Structures are given as structure tokens and as C-alpha cells.
């Protein structure tokens, strides 16, 4: 009996020890779970804080910049390809429709404003009759517009295009009007403003301001920092303002760039 009692007590002690170990293991597991939950919550908080500090902080943690779906707007491709489609239709119209009609309704000038054709402020930003002008603008719209469209969505891409195009046209026509008023020798030559350059410049400028350290392939094979490329084009357009014989709308380019800068200041400057 004594031996059996001792064995029973030993078995009970072993069982008690095992139960104690199981309890300690359960407590340790619970503490690990709490610690993991706290770490996860802390990590999530850091991510949220990074996002709320602005697009710059958030995008730096996402190497595929510009490929963010904020779920706020419809597919940007509808807007991007729609803009390119309208430009293509107007370019084709220049090849088959009377140039007099196209110049009257798809080019803006001081004469157009004086004769109550304000629709040219809109139509001129989709109008290119030269293939080189058309091709360069559409390439710029496609490659730069994709990043902005993926980031902001279709409606804001469209709004930025229209704002840049309108700003470029107004600045160029306004400058032409000021020059005509000060022209002292006869009647100055009427200048016509047309093309998507102002609209595209707004998109390019916003892209460069958002991603100044990104690399751009100039002429498809020369890597150039985006900020440097933007500075070069701005300097070229500023110098072109003083070239009276230039057929390029340098003021329109700068007006479009100003629209992109204004958009950045209004929506993104506080994040930097």
C-alpha cells in the first residue's frame, strides 16, 4: 500500500507539473500573440501616418509609382484614349476639310475673339495640322498622361488637360493682343494659336513636380533627370518669348506649365 501510495503521489505530481507547464506555455503564447498584434497595429499606424504625410511619403514605399488605385475615379484610360482620339479626329479633319473652315473654327486668335468665336478657346487645344506637331504632342500625352491618370484618375486628367490648354491659349492670345496694341508700323500679322502643347505641358509639369528625381528617356534612349529636362524646356520657352520670328507658341507652353504648377500648389504642395 505504501508503495502504491507513493506511485500515486508521484503520478499526481507529474500531472500537476505537466499542467503547470501547459499553463505557462499558454500564457507565453498569449503574450506572443498580444505582442504580434501590437506590432501589427504599430506597423499599420506607421503606414497610415506615412500616407497622411502626403503622396511623396506614400509613393516612396511603392516602387511602382503612379500605379495606385485610389478608388475615387473611373478608369483613366477612357479619358486618356478619348483625348488622343479627339486630337486624331481633328488632325484628320485638317487633311480633308477646307483649311479656311478649320482655321476659322479650330484655331484661336485675337481676330476670333473679336468676332465672337469663343469656342476656339476649346477647339484649338485639340487642333494640329502638321504631323510632327501632332505626333510629339500625342507621344507626350500618352507617356506622361499615363502616370498622372493612374495617380489622379480620368476626370482629373481631363480637367488638367482642359485647364492647361485653356491657360496656354489665353496667355498666348493675350500676349498677341498686347503686342498688337503697341505695334506702331502698320497692321501686325495675325497669329493663330492651336495645338495640344499647352495642355500637355500642364500634365508634364505636374508629373515632374511630383517625381523630380525620376529618369526620362530623351529621344527614347538618353536618360535625363526629369527636373533637369523640365528646366531645359522652361528656359527654352522663356528665351523663345523674345524671338519675334518664331512660329512656336512659347507663351502658350509657359501658360500650360503654369497651370500644372498651380494644380501642384493647390493639391500637393502641403505634402512636401
From TrEMBL:
Show where the Peptidase S54 rhomboid domain sits: 119-269
Q: Which Pfam families match?
A: Rhomboid
Q: What GO cellular-component annotations does this UniProt entry give?
A: membrane
Q: Report keywords, A-Z.
A: Hydrolase, Membrane, Transmembrane, Transmembrane helix
- Transmembrane annotation, as ranges: 79-101, 121-145, 157-179, 191-210, 216-235, 247-266
Locations listed in the record: Membrane
Recorded topology in the membrane: Multi-pass membrane protein
Q: Which InterPro entries match?
A: Peptidase_S54_rhomboid_dom, Rhomboid-like_sf, Rhomboid_protease_S54
**One Gene Ontology term of the molecular function aspect:** serine-type endopeptidase activity
Top-level division of the source organism's lineage:
Eukaryota
Which family would the database say this protein is a member of?
A: Belongs to the peptidase S54 family.
Name under which the protein is recorded: Rhomboid domain-containing protein
- Native organism is Chloropicon roscoffensis
Amino acid at each position: 500500500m505504501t508503495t502504491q501510495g507513493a506511485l500515486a503521489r508521484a503520478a499526481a505530481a507529474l500531472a500537476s507539473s505537466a499542467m503547470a507547464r501547459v499553463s505557462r506555455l499558454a500564457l507565453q503564447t498569449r503574450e506572443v500573440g498580444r505582442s504580434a498584434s501590437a506590432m501589427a497595429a504599430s506597423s499599420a499606424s506607421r503606414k497610415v501616418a506615412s500616407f497622411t504625410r502626403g503622396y511623396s511619403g506614400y509613393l516612396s514605399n511603392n516602387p511602382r509609382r503612379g500605379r495606385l488605385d485610389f478608388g475615387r475615379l473611373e478608369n483613366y484610360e477612357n479619358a486618356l484614349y478619348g483625348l488622343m482620339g479627339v486630337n486624331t479626329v481633328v488632325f484628320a479633319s485638317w487633311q480633308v476639310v477646307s483649311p479656311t473652315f478649320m482655321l476659322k473654327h479650330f484655331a484661336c486668335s485675337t481676330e476670333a475673339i473679336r468676332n465672337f468665336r469663343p469656342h476656339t478657346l476649346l477647339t484649338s487645344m485639340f487642333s494640329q495640322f502638321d504631323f510632327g506637331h501632332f505626333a510629339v504632342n500625342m507621344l507626350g500625352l500618352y507617356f506622361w498622361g499615363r502616370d498622372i491618370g493612374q495617380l489622379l484618375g480620368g476626370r482629373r486628367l481631363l480637367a488638367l488637360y482642359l485647364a492647361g490648354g485653356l491657360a496656354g491659349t489665353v496667355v498666348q492670345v493675350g500676349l498677341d493682343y498686347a503686342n498688337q496694341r503697341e505695334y506702331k508700323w502698320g497692321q501686325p500679322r495675325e497669329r493663330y494659336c492651336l495645338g495640344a502643347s499647352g495642355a500637355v505641358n500642364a500634365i508634364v509639369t505636374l508629373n515632374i513636380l511630383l517625381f523630380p528625381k525620376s529618369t526620362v528617356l530623351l529621344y527614347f534612349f538618353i536618360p535625363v533627370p526629369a527636373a533637369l529636362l523640365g528646366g531645359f524646356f522652361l528656359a527654352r520657352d522663356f528665351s523663345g518669348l523674345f524671338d519675334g520670328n518664331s512660329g512656336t507658341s512659347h507663351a502658350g507652353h509657359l501658360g500650360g506649365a503654369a497651370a500644372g504648377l498651380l494644380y501642384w500648389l493647390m493639391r500637393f504642395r502641403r505634402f512636401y
